[in-house]
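Hey, can you fold this one?
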Amino acid sequence: MSDLKIVVVGAAGRMGKTLIAQVSETEGCILSGATEPEGAPMLGRDAGLVAGVGELGVTITHDPLPLIAQAQAVLDFTAPAAAVAHAGLCAQARIVHVIGTTGFSAEEEDRIRAAARHATIIKAGNMSLGVNLIAQLTRQVAKLLDPSFDIEIVEMHHRHKVDAPSGTALLLGQAAAEGRGVDLDKVADRGRDGITGARQPGHIGFAALRGGGVVGEHSVLFAAEDEIVELSHRAFDRSIFARGAVHAAKWGQGHAPGLYSMADVLGFSDG
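Sure. Predicted structure:
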């Protein structure tokens, strides 16, 4: 069996370099291409050298089209507009597109769903096994505890993160809403400032902290009058997301076009 040909877009970013390292270390996978936006300083450099894993013989270029046409999977932790464009190219090539990007608008989400008619797209706010396990537990706990338990989601990330709440926080919020049988958009409190009044019963609150180099910390709190149940996850290294992304790319081979989540990849959605 030949190696799975994988393209990493956004190759010189923090996650891009981690993805390249993970692909190079994974048996049965090969880095077949790497991209950066036009004008980026790392264009023309060997992707392996940029990622710190030694020369791989793959030059970072700005045009993803010829690379995607020859690949079997794309790993994408870029920006919403770029990820949407890549989804369209993956749809043309009918290959797997793994999206770890967050912060999409409703219109961008629609375009990704349209691309999934022809591409096998695995999209998740977080690719780690631990976080997706916490999401499953959040769904179950929210279903089991009565509405007297208020749900609050607290997350912290590094100072460079541009979207809030994080994609993972929204993933956990959606899990909590599903457990309660409610629409998250109708019960989410994403920011509190000033005289806000008493907490709305049944709402799901979000708090976003930013600072330092924190990779990602998330907690779901179920708070009643006399007790608090807390589910937490801390990420210490980006490699956990990269391992999940590569696993998703391998899982996507042979699966029909469609929009999937990490719950599908990990088998959590079967029950």
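The CA atoms of residues 8 and 34 lie 5 Å apart. Let me know if you want another pass with a different chain boundary.
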